[in-house]
Every structure is written in structure tokens, then in C-alpha cells.
Amino acid sequence: REEERLEQAYNQKIFQIYQATEGFLGFTCSHGTLHLNEDLLIVEKEYIDHERFTPIITDLFRKTQPIIRYRLDDILVEQKTPCPCGCIFQPIRRIEGRCDDLLYVQSINGTYKPLFPDFISRRIISVSEQIQDFEVIQTFPHQWRIFLDSRFRQKVHKELALLVSNMDCLLPEITFTDQPFPKAPGSKMRRIRRECAAV
């Protein structure tokens, strides 16, 4: 939504780059598809499910700080079909956050299932275009704390309950708050994160 607003305001198409401390990892082509820089990197895929993977990268050109089979914490969604731009480098549908941002919900049979952050974000922002800011933190396996404008809490709770129910899982106890959660100076903005151990 922010991307759409900026495109309308400046009458320009916004392109993306995928870059981290480890280097320049991807670029957006003229068709708006994010491609991995496979001319500069070897990218091995550690699959999380049939379409999501964590990249393990080897930089082919870096000399001063070698990056060899370095596992990133990012969750990438693979695009299975070739991009119409003709580029043969791996197309990526989207970046869904980091493995540390995976939340876990308890299924009706007692096991825990991962819940990808993008699923949660999409449910929340689908409630209203007026939602400007939110954060979701899993503090314990059965507890979430959510920073959100009070006007949207009831509908967001309903959407999250539906999301979890469709997974045959139980919705954790949710506590809403009016204040954003404190962040360490210089830390990255993460709207969804897990502060308890993975289960």
C-alpha cells in the first residue's frame, strides 16, 4: 500500500533491490520481478515448504570478506514460472521476512505449526486502508501482544482467528496495546517477531 501511494504521488514505478550486509543479492527487472543475482552468487536453497526457502549464498567475487555457504535468515518465496523479461536468474515472488519472525500456533492435535509473517500482515492490513502502523510479538507459545489502533482491534482479532482456524490451530491469547514496542537503537523495523524459543 505504501508502495502504491508513492507510485501515485510521484507518477513513477518503484523498483526494488535485495541487499544486505552480505552483498547485493537481487534486483527488480523491467517487469517488476525480483531476481537473484546469480551472476555474482551461488544460491543454494534450504526449503521450508514447497515454495519457501532460506538462501545459502556464496559470493563469487568478494575477496576482502569471503562469503562462502553463508546461510541467511530470510524467507524467500520462489516463483516457479519464468519471468517474461527473459532473465534466467531465479525469480522471487516476495520476501516474507526472517526465520526468526516465524510465529508458531498450536494445532488441535497438540503439535505446533509455523505461521509465516506475511500471512499475518496481509490479514491485518486487509481490515482497513487506514491502518498505518502495527506490530505483533509472540512473547510465549500461547501469547501474542499486538500494537494496533483501537478502532481496528475487533476486526483484526476476527481475521487472525479465521486465519488460525483455517490451519486447524488454536488462536493464542492476544493482548492489545496502544504503545509501540521498544526497540534497541539501530535495530531494524520488524512488524512481526517472536521473542520466545521456537517450539
Order of helices and strands: HEEEEEEEEEEHEEHEE
- Please state the overall shape, judged from the principal axes of the Cα atoms: globular
**What is the subunit organization of this protein?**
single chain
- Briefly note the structural class of the backbone: alpha+beta
Strand tally is: 14
Radius of gyration: 19 Å
**How confident overall, as mean pLDDT?**
88
User: In percent, how helical is the residue content?
Assistant: 10-25%
Low-confidence stretches: none
Distance between the termini: 33 Å
Percentage beta strand: 35-45%
Characterize the biggest β-sheet: 8 strands, antiparallel
User: What's the helix count?
Assistant: 3
Note down, in words, how this protein is organized.
By secondary structure, the chain is an alpha+beta fold. Helices cover 16% and strands 35% of the residues. The chain has three helices and 14 strands. The protein has helices at residues 2-10, 117-125, 153-166, and strands at residues 17-20, 23-28, 34-36, 41-47, 52-59, 70-71, 74-78, 91-98, 103-106, 112-115, 135-140, 143-147, 173-177, 192-194. Helix 2 (117-125) packs across helix 3 (153-166). The longest helix is centred in the last third of the chain and has 14 residues, at 153-166. The chain starts with a helix and ends in a 5-residue tail after the last strand.
Keywords for this structure?
199 residues; alpha+beta; four-stranded mixed sheet
